[in-house]
């Protein structure tokens, strides 16, 4: 017998809040770091992807019933593999950042979007909406990073501060930080939003009289 989600120790709400927490940590680390280089970006992404993958992996057994485990299992695999690749110190180059983050964003975004659309009847409209939006955001991140910005460089100067160069990797790491911030806010709102209670069936008059 399947335990109702309201009676479980862990449910979709906990998955959303855990994902929001790790996304928020990634956004804060990027935002408050003056170094938007490939090593920093891959280091932050590695922690974010591995933590998110672990959340999905745990949800396979703790949250989702047997017939709904494929999507979180696939998301766990994709995130953990991407996080492990990004964690290799000698691979933390600009090209690897673009390759890993683009591949992760496109694959995980497609999986989450398609999974949400296919499971609308089982996870409900709210759950499907969450998956659709996060999937679209991930796909947008991947598509934007596919634009020819890797070799971009713009020299500029600020009076009294000196000369600086805005590079493609700086923009890309900033975009990932912005993506993480939006995901964190949305999932936090979804996680803290009140759940619709299931209607209680009416008691027949004969049973009520007895």
From TrEMBL:
Instruction: Please provide the record's keywords in A-Z order.
Output: Membrane, Transmembrane, Transmembrane helix
Q: Where are the transmembrane segments?
A: 17-34, 40-63, 70-91, 97-118, 130-149, 169-192
The highest taxon in the source lineage is Bacteria
Protein name as it appears in the record: Acyl-CoA synthetase
Q: Which organism is it from?
A: Microbacterium testaceum (strain StLB037)
């Amino acid at each position: 017998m399947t335990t109702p989600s309201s009676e479980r120790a862990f449910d979709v709400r906990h998955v959303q809040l855990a994902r929001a927490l790790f996304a928020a940590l990634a956004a804060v680390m990027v935002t408050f770091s003056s170094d938007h280089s490939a090593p920093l970006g891959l280091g932050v992404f590695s922690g974010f992807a591995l933590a998110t993958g672990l959340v999905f992996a745990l949800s396979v057994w703790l949250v989702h019933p047997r017939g709904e485990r494929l999507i979180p299992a696939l998301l766990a695999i994709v995130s953990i593999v991407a996080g492990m690749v990004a964690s290799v110190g000698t691979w933390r180059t600009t090209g690897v950042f673009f390759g890993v983050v683009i591949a992760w964003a496109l694959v995980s975004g497609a999986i989450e979007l398609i999974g949400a659309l296919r499971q609308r009847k089982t996870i409900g409209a709210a759950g499907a909406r969450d998956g659709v939006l996060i999937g679209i955001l991930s796909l947008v991140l991947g598509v934007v990073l596919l634009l020819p910005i890797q070799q971009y460089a713009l020299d500029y100067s600020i009076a009294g501060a000196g000369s600086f160069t805005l590079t493609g990797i700086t923009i890309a790491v900033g975009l990932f930080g912005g993506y993480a911030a939006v995901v964190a806010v949305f999932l936090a709102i979804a996680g803290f939003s009140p759940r619709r209670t299931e209607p209680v069936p009416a008691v027949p008059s004969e049973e009520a009289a007895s």
